[in-house]
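Sanity check

After download, print the first record. It should look like this:
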Amino acid sequence: MERLEARIEGRVQGVGFRHFVWQQARALGLTGWVRNRRDGSVEVVAEGPRERLDVLLAALYEGPPSAWVRSVEARWAPARGEFAEFTVRPTV
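Expected structure tokens:
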């Protein structure tokens, strides 16, 4: 089990990006969260098997049809097992 922490920049707010990530993560059986940041980026923390996290990471580069992804910064770490499901968190 691993942990993916990602920050996505571009036109990623107001285009259904969080819902897109939530759907992808839930379909992959991942746990964690997604949220908007006040600087206009989206932040994702997800835990699960590396091969499923790789699928999610690829989806972050694409986003929903109305999004435009300029960059994705990803970091990997061991899973902490702190989440029961994948959720959408409030903006920070």
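If your output differs, re-run the checksum step. Summary of this record's structure: Helices lie at 17-27, 50-62.
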